[in-house]
Amino acid sequence: LAKTTQPISMDSYEGQEVNITCSHNNIATNDYITWYQQFPSQGPRFIIQGYKTKVTNEVASLFIPADRKSSTLSLPRVSLSDTAVYYCLVGGRSGNTPLVFGKGTRLSVIA
Amino acid sequence: DAGVIQSPRHEVTEMGQEVTLRCKPISGHDYLFWYRQTMMRGLELLIYFNNNVPIDDSGMPEDRFSAKMPNASFSTLKIQPSEPRDSAVYFCASSFWGRGYSNQPQHFGDGTRLSIL
């Protein structure tokens, strides 16, 4: 499984756009990139998944360059409730294979 | 819709006691995963099932841990005897792996916080 590297922590003010970048230099051809969010005392929650280029949903956008060796999760106009740990995962499409979590990025949103 | 339901939410017991954690996956899901989260090791897979059959239990720490899935709507993770180093948050997740558009990512329960004294 491809190893991922992401910042340990980030701070942001409310209303700003937050971009969290994840490096995955050894990503395999069949690998997808998936992001999960975890609030304290809760289980991880699926945010977004992509294979290449750009994916957008109601929560976030995921940007993946052509070489796929990195990806960027973009959270528009964050609020205090976006304070959480964000995990970048690389592997299968996540439904039928175990997820391998790294240490994640702890995002703190400040008023 | 009900999500993945885990019970109990918190469990405190003395070492040596048997501990049973329970999970009810989302109805219709055919994959079930047990994960454990600690500060030191983060989130790690223990075991997972497909259609009630264990597929990979290589993450189970040792023989003290066992997991069963007697039917599609229920799974248990048992620790006997429990030890202080088993203290962690245990998560259950489920998913549906259909074809193409019907594939589902893993949905997690809110976990069981286990403390072994």
Describe this structure in words.
The complex is a heterodimer of chains A (111) and B (117). Chain A is mainly β and 111 residues long. Chain A is built from no helices and 9 strands. Chain A has a 5-stranded mixed β-sheet, with no helix packed on it. In chain A, strands 2-7-6-5 form a 4-stranded antiparallel β-sheet, with no helix packed on it. Helix content of chain B is 0%, strand content 53%. Chain B starts with a strand and ends with a strand. In chain B, the strands form 2 sheets. In chain B, strands 2, 4, 5, 6, 9, 10 and 11 form a 7-stranded mixed β-sheet that branches. Chain B is an all-beta fold and 117 residues long. The model of chain B has no long low-confidence stretch (mean pLDDT 92). Chains A and B meet through strand 4 of A and strand 4, strand 5, strand 9 and strand 10 of B.
Largest sheet of chain A: 5 strands, mixed
- Unreliable sequence segments of chain B: none
The strands making up the biggest β-sheet of chain A line up spatially as 1-9-8-3-4
Mean pLDDT of chain B: 92
Radius of gyration of chain B: 14 Å
Oligomer: heterodimer
Number of helices of chain B: 0
Question: What helical percentage do the residues of chain B reach?
Answer: under 10%
* Strand-residue proportion of chain B: over 45%
Provide the β-strand percentage band of chain A: over 45%
Low-confidence stretches of chain A: none
Label the overall shape of chain B: globular
What is the count of β-strands of chain A?
A: 9
Main pleated sheet of chain B? 7 strands, mixed
**Taking all residues together, what is the mean pLDDT of chain A?**
92
Order of helices and strands of chain A: EEEEEEEEE
The H/E string of chain B reads EEEEEEEEEEE
Question: Helices and strands of chain B: which structural class?
Answer: mainly beta
Instruction: Specify the number of helices of chain A.
Output: 0
Shape estimate of chain A: globular
Any idea what the radius of gyration of chain A is? 13 Å
